[in-house]
Amino acid sequence: MAIPRRLAEPPSAALRTVLGDLPPAALEGRCDAHDHLFLASPQLPGQELDDPAAAAAELRAFKEAGGGTVMQWTPHGMGRRAAELVRLSRATGVRIVAATGLHQAAHYAPDLLDRVRGDLAALFVAELTEGIGGPEGPRAGLIKVAGGFHGLDAHARHTFAAAAEAHHATGAAIAVHLELGTGALDVLDLLCGTAGVAPQHVVLGHLNRSPEAAVHRTAAEAGAYLAFDGPSRAHHATDWRLPDALAALVDAGFGDRLLLGGDTTTAAARSAAGGPGLPYVVSGLARRLSLTLETAAVERMLTDNPARAFATEWRA
């Protein structure tokens, strides 16, 4: 199925943080476009991100390194601790965007999936417009879903359909976990072809894990945002290819579609525990990339691009 060509971003938009909506121009500092402050999964037993004090220390270090905003991609049912996100944002001054959505089925107990599968779109819309856990909770600012390895299983197709429905109802960006960086074109076929989501509202994550230049360029030509989020210790295998992959896309004219993140998924990957953690994305990684790319191009990846990628003209 043909993927629609990219369209222009809306003339006015807002970023939905846990403390309220902000125009993109109001953001200060650099942005980690894909990370986690809290996360729990049966796939990572004993490695939970569940310590508010450690999350606060990580955010303070992030801010000291020049960070200003964190996009937290932890979706529904994986220990988001939404109330803590509000407290931490106020205490540290770091803007935080929370996620609704659903990960792969393997990350949940079967009974939780049974409870939510009936009307996922309604759940996503409620968390985007009313609040996570109800009106007393903060509103989510993005929808996180996940593909499979080189394909989309029935669970993924169900969650993607719900994400598209929620996007059409609210305008929220859809952030996609690509398993080992694969399946990007299948995702765009489904979301932007079948489901009618404009490609500039799709963020493809983990592309560093499958550094296939033709796929990257095709996704960028379609108009999606491309997130490279591999500095985390758990995802280091292809990190050394990151500068060349980004340089190829910048040289091809797609520097405005690129995002950087850390994807810290375990307590051991935080900066205080050996890291590199959130601070590295806006400091060490930026320095590394500046050896290959113009500093202005790297700065766009850490400021203007994520502000546009996750901002939308909210419809609810």
Instruction: Give the number of DSSP strands.
Output: 11
CATH superfamily: Metal-dependent hydrolases
Question: What is the helix content?
Answer: 25-40%
First and last CA, distance? 30 Å
Order of strands across the widest beta sheet? 6-7-8-9-10-11
In total, the number of domains comes to 1
Mean pLDDT: 93
Which CATH C-level class is it? Alpha Beta
Q: Based on the coordinates given, report the CATH architecture.
A: Alpha-Beta Barrel
**Number of helical elements:** 12
Alpha carbon gyration radius: 17 Å
Task: Estimate what percentage of residues fall within beta strands.
Answer: 5-15%
Low-pLDDT parts are 1-8
Reported by name, the CATH topology is TIM Barrel
- Which structural class fits the helix and strand makeup? alpha/beta
Quick one: biggest sheet?
6 strands, parallel
Q: What is the N-to-C succession of helices and strands?
A: EEEHEHEEHHEHEHEHEHEHHHH
Shape: globular
If you had to describe this structure to a student in words, what would you say it looks like?
- The protein is α/β, with parallel strands linked by helices and 316 residues long.
- It has a single domain (31-310), classed as Alpha-Beta Barrel (TIM Barrel).
- Helix content is 37%, strand content 14%.
- It contains 12 helices and 11 strands.
- The strands form 3 sheets. Strands 6-7-8-9-10-11 form a 6-stranded parallel sheet, sandwiched between helices.
- β9, α7 and β10 (225-228) form a beta-alpha-beta unit.
- α1 packs parallel to α2 and α4 (120-129) runs parallel beside α5 (154-170).
- The longest helix is centred in the middle third of the chain and has 17 residues, at 154-170.
- The protein is globular and about 50 Å long.
- 51% of the residues are buried.
- Residues 1-8 have low confidence and may be disordered.
